[in-house]
Amino acid sequence: MDAETLDRFRLGGITFFPETSILWGDVPKVASTSLREVFESVYGRAVTFKDDAEEYRKLVKTTASPTVDWFRFFFVRNPYDRFVSLFEYAKKTGLGGRVTGFEHFVKTFRKRNERDEGFRAHARPASDWNVLDPNYVGHFETLFADVCQVIEWTSGRIAAAGLQRSETLTLPHKNATDREPWHDYFVPQDNDRAIDLVRDFYLDDLRMGYTAI
Asked: 17 and 44 in contact (C-beta within 8 Å)?
């Protein structure tokens, strides 16, 4: 992974589990908090840029080394659903500036993305994580089954590290938002501006198993 890639993910987006040589692409608004809790319980200590910048930089260098075999994966989410989740999060936290409603968020989305680094890190298309050359890409819509599949595939690494793997897996639902289904934000209102924005901005994400509306 080169310096440009490191900088692209500096504010978040890559989590290393050095004990098991696992590299997880942590895509914002794709069950990040819940997944980190699960993966820390399975793969051992997690390292992000925020956790330890120096160790993180050293680990990034090993991703280009043939002597370290990192298993790399990330999860994607329906872009319309993720966009609504980002809207609700921005409205609640003020990420990228004040949000007065969905229409306002749609209208100001590109400006927020241009001027605010933190917002840009949260809004970044999941397809950006393809730069990690992943071994596997799972889906939010089948999250539990896909997480179980990843853990099964990497069970040898868990055993080799001397870590205990639980016989039962639970996936906590952290930071859930009580809101209407995502399509209610787009379809009933015939919200062409919002539909076009998501289709254009997240076009490559839509190509990862989703259908444009």
From this structure: yes
- Is position 141 within any domain? yes
Cα distance between residue 158 and residue 91, in whole Å: 40
213 in any annotated domain: no
Residue-number span of the structural domain to which 145 is assigned: 3-206
Q: What are phi and psi of 7, to 5 degrees?
A: -65, -35
Q: Tens of pLDDT along 161-212?
A: 999 776 667 766 655 667 789 999 997 666 899 999 999 999 999 999 999 9
Residues in the chain: 213
Distance between alpha carbon 98 and the CA centroid of its chain, in Å? 24
Which distant-in-sequence residues (6+ apart) come within 8 Å of 169 by Cβ? 38, 144, 147, 148, 151
For residues 10 and 22, is the Cβ–Cβ distance under 8 A?
Answer: no
pTM for the model stands at: 0.90
Distance CA 117, CA 87 (A): 16
**211 in a domain, yes or no?**
no
Q: Give residue for tokens 């994400």.
A: 205
- C-alpha–C-alpha distance, residues 127 and 177, integer Å: 24
Q: Give the number of domains in the chain.
A: 1
Beta carbons of 14 and 28 less than 8 angstroms apart: no
Residue 80 tokens read as 């319309």
Which stretches within 9-78 are classed as H helix?
A: 32-43, 53-62
**Could you give the residue ranges of the DSSP H alpha helices within the chain?**
3-8, 32-43, 53-62, 79-93, 102-115, 117-123, 143-153, 155-160, 192-201, 203-206
